[in-house]
Design the sequence.
DNA sequence: CTGAAAGCGCTAACAC
DNA sequence: GTGTTAGCGCTTTCAG
C-alpha cells in the first residue's frame, strides 16, 4: 500500500451541515459527559445500552439529550482499539470486475455481515499476487474479524501465507490442505439437476457439451449428468458428450457435432455456450424447444432470461456463497464439514419441451 | 448496524502460523522496543520510515530484526485514533448485485484508492434507505476520509442527510443542488459517437430506438444523435426515432416499426435492445450488417462481444467513473467543474458496414 | 447508581 | 540520535 497524498482535505461546499455546526473537531464522549454533567463512564453505558448497568432514567434522559444536541457520534477506531478486534470482515476477491458473478458474492457477504454488525472491507486483486499480499496485510492491520478469500470461478487455490494469520474461509474455491474451511457450489448436484430437467420432460438422448478447460465444474457437471442418467436407467453414451471452449463461439461451433448423434436435448456447460448454440441451431433451421431442448448452467441473468426462448438453466448460488462464507467465518452454524457445498437450484424457463416423437 | 453475535472466535485449524508462534495477543510496538532495547518512539520512527528522523544505522538494524523475529504488525486502529482520520474511503452503492456494471465502479475506485494508500469500505444498500443511512453512519464512525455515493444507473439523486457530514462525491449520479461534486458518463457525447460510427460508414437513414423510461441517458443519447446528424448535414426525421422498453424484449418488439421507415442502420439505446433486435431482424430474414447495420450502447461485454455478428457499441466508462470519483474526492486533479462528465468511448465490432446501395 | 482512573497501541513534541 | 511523556476517544474494573 503506497502512500502519497496531496488532497486538500477540504469538505465539499455543501449546504450547512445540520449536526456539527461549525465544529472543526468531532464531538467526543467526554464533551457529552460534561454537557450532561456526568462522567464519561456513564455516557459510555447509555451509548452502548448496557443491559446490566442500572442508570437512573432521569440521568439517561439527560445524557441522551446531550448526545442529540451535540450530534455525538462514537469513534469506532477508539472502540476497536480498546476491544482489540474490529467489526470488519475482509473480502479478498480475484475479480469483482471480470464477471457479473463476483458482485453477488459481495452482495451476499455484505448482507449477512451487516446482519451481525460487521462491515465489509474489500480488496480486488485481479489476480495480482503482490497486491493480494498487501491487501491481506492491510486487513490484518485493521484487525478484521476474519477474511473471506474468494475467486470468481470455482477452483482450487493456494492459501497465501499472510492469510493464515487471520481467521479465514475460502469462498468459491478450496485448498488441498485438509481442514481449510471453504464454501463452494455443488457442481455435481447442479449437473444432476440440469440433466433432470431434460429427463423430466421425457428426453432420453441427451447430449452434454462440456468445457475443454479443466475445472471442478467440468468434472462435477459431467459427473452429475452421468448420475442423473444412471438413476433414470439410461445407459451412458460417450458419443453424446463433446467438448468445446466455454463461450458463445464454442457453443456455436459445437452445433454440427451435436447434430450428428440424434440428440433430442442438450445440456450445455454454461449459458454462454447455450447462447452460441441457439445461433447455430437457428442457422440449421432448428427451433428450440420444438426440435431440440436446451438447458444451460450458471443462470447468467442477462443471457438466460432474455434469449429467445428464455433458457432453462441451473443457477450458481453466488449470493448464497457470500452468505455462507460469513456464517462459516463467524461460526454461526453447527460445525459441519470444513467445506460446505451449496445447492445449485434449477431455474426453468421455456427452452425445454418433450421430444417431438415422444 | 445491529449487533448480535455468538461466534466462537476460534481460528481455523490451519497449519501452524509462521509468524505469531502461539501468541494469543498480537505483538505491540512496545514489545518490539523492549526486544530491541530502544524506546517506542524509535521503533515508531523506523516503522514509518520517517525521512527526517536520524536513526543510527546500527539501531535501525536492531529494530528491524526485532520487528521481523517478533512478527510485528502495526495496529492501524491505534494509528487512526491518533491521527483522527483513517485511510478508508467509503463506497455506498445502491446495487452491486443488480448489474455487472457496478462491479466496475468498485474496481476502478479500489484501484485508485489503493494507489493512494486507501482501502475501500463498501456498503450495498440495494435501494434500502434505512440501510443506507446506517451504512453512512457506520462509515462516519470509522472516520472515513470520504464517501463515494454511487448508483447503478445514471440518474439524479437526493443527498442523504448523513452524507453531508462527510467529504463526498456522487458517482454515476448527480444532485439538483449546485456545487455537489459528481462524476457521470457523458451521455451526449456517447450518443454522438454511436451515431458517428454509422455516419462514418456512409449511412444516412439512421433510426434510433430510444428507451421509454425517463433518464439522463434517454435525453442525452437522443441529443447526441441529433447533434451528430446535424453536424453531418442530415435533417432530423422524427419518424426514425421510436421508443421501446430498454431490454431484449423491447428491442425485439420494435423490429416491425423499425422496418417501416427504410432505415439502413439503427442505433439502439442499449445493447440489450440490440440483442432483441438481432432476433427480430433475423426472423424477418434480414442479415446484419449486410441488410441493416446496428450499434448499441453500454458495451455490456457478455452481450456485445458475443452476439453474431459482434456488436459495435459505445462503452459506459464505469471503471473510469470509479477512478475519477476517488480522484475528485481526494482533490487530486485541478479544480475543474463540480460535475465531471466522463468520455464514453466507441468500441467497434462488426455489426456495421456501408449500406447496400451506397 | 455513578465517578475516578487505568489503559488499548501508537504518534509527536520535547527533553537530554 | 534516542528516550520521556502526554494524550487520541473509549471501555471497564473498582470504589463509593
Sequence:
Amino acid at each position: 500500500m503506497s502512500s502519497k497524498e496531496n488532497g486538500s482535505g477540504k469538505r465539499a461546499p455543501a449546504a450547512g451541515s445540520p449536526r456539527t455546526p461549525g465544529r472543526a473537531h468531532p464531538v467526543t464522549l467526554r464533551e457529552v459527559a460534561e454537557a450532561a454533567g456526568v462522567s464519561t463512564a456513564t455516557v459510555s453505558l447509555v451509548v452502548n445500552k448496557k443491559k446490566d448497568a442500572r442508570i437512573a432514567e432521569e440521568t439517561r434522559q439527560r445524557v441522551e439529550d446531550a448526545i442529540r444536541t451535540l450530534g455525538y457520534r462514537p469513534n469506532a477506531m477508539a472502540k476497536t482499539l480498546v476491544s482489540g478486534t474490529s467489526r470488519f470482515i475482509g473480502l479478498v476477491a480475484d475479480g469483482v470486475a471480470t464477471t457479473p458473478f463476483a458482485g453477488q458474492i459481495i452482495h451476499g457477504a455484505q448482507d449477512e455481515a451487516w446482519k451481525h454488525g460487521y462491515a465489509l472491507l474489500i480488496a480486488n486483486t485481479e489476480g495480482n499476487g503482490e497486491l493480494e499480499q498487501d491487501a491481506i496485510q492491510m486487513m490484518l492491520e485493521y484487525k478484521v474479524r476474519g477474511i473471506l478469500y474468494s475467486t470468481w470461478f470455482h477452483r482450487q487455490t493456494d492459501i497465501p501465507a499472510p492469510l493464515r494469520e487471520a481467521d479465514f474461509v475460502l469462498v468459491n474455491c478450496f485448498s488441498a490442505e485438509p481442514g481449510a474451511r471453504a464454501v463452494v457450489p455443488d457442481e455435481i448436484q447442479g449437473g444432476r439437476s440440469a440433466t433432470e430437467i431434460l429427463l423430466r420432460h421425457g428426453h432420453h438422448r441427451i447430449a452434454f457439451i462440456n468445457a475443454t478447460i479443466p475445472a471442478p465444474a467440468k468434472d462435477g457437471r459431467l459427473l452429475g449428468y452421468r448420475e442423473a442418467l444412471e438413476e433414470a436407467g439410461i445407459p451412458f453414451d460417450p458419443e453424446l458428450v463433446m467438448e468445446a471452449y466455454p463461450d458463445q463461439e464454442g457453443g456455436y461451433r459445437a452445433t454440427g457435432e451435436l447434430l450428428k448423434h440424434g440428440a433430442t436435448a442438450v445440456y450445455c456447460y454454461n449459458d454462454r455456450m447455450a447462447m452460441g448454440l441457439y445461433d447455430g441451431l437457428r442457422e440449421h433451421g432448428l427451433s428450440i424447444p420444438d426440435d431440440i431442448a436446451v438447458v444451460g448452467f450458471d443462470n447468467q441473468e442477462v443471457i438466460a432470461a432474455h434469449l429467445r426462448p428464455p433458457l432453462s438453466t441451473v443457477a450458481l448460488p453466488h449470493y448464497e456463497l457470500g452468505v455462507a462464507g460469513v456464517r462459516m467465518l463467524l461460526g454461526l452454524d453447527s460445525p459441519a464439514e470444513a467445506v460446505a457445498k451449496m445447492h445449485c437450484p434449477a431455474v426453468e424457463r421455456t427452452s425445454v419441451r418433450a421430444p417431438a416423437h415422444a
Remarks:
- Confidence is low (pLDDT under 50) at residues 1-23 of chain B.
- Chain B has 13 helices and twelve strands.
